[in-house]
Amino acid sequence: MITSSHSRLPAWRIALWGFAALALLAPGVAMQFTSEVRWDLADFLVFGGMLLIACGAFELAMRLTSQRRSRWIAGVVIAALFLLVWAELAVGLLH
User: Fold this and answer.
1) Which of 35, 36, 37, 75 can bridge 30 by disulfide, Cβ–Cβ 3.0-4.6 Å?
2) Are 31 and 39 within 8 A, CB to CB?
3) Is 38 helix (H, G, I), strand (E, B) or coil?
4) What are the helix (H) ranges across the chain?
């Protein structure tokens, strides 16, 4: 079997999407153990959409630039925007 280096996924990509999958599963697992977490289908769909947009934006940033500093800045900005939207949806942080 011949494999090329192009067929392997970069470690950052596996970590990124793996973290997103775990983050999406966490509330479902928490609901099995406590009544404090009560998500419905809409909550999972919104959070999944947020993760998809954030991870997709990070992948795009990684493809568009090769400079480490630019990648770090993009990652921090994307993470900050993700957390800001999440906090706003959870508790109305900006109201």
Assistant:
1) 37
2) yes
3) coil
4) 11-33, 41-64, 68-91
Residue-number span of the structural domain to which 70 is assigned: 40-95
- The structure's pTM equals 0.84
Residue whose C-alpha is closest to residue 41's, from 51, 53, 27: 27
On whether residue 5 sits in a domain, the answer given is no
Q: What is the CA radius of gyration of the chain?
A: 16
The count of other CB atoms within 10 Å of the CB of residue 51 is 19
| Number of structural domains found in the chain | 1
pLDDT digits (tens, 9 = 90+) for 7-59: 788 898 999 999 999 999 999 999 999 999 999 999 999 999 999 999 999 99
> Running DSSP on this structure, what letter comes out for residue 8?
S
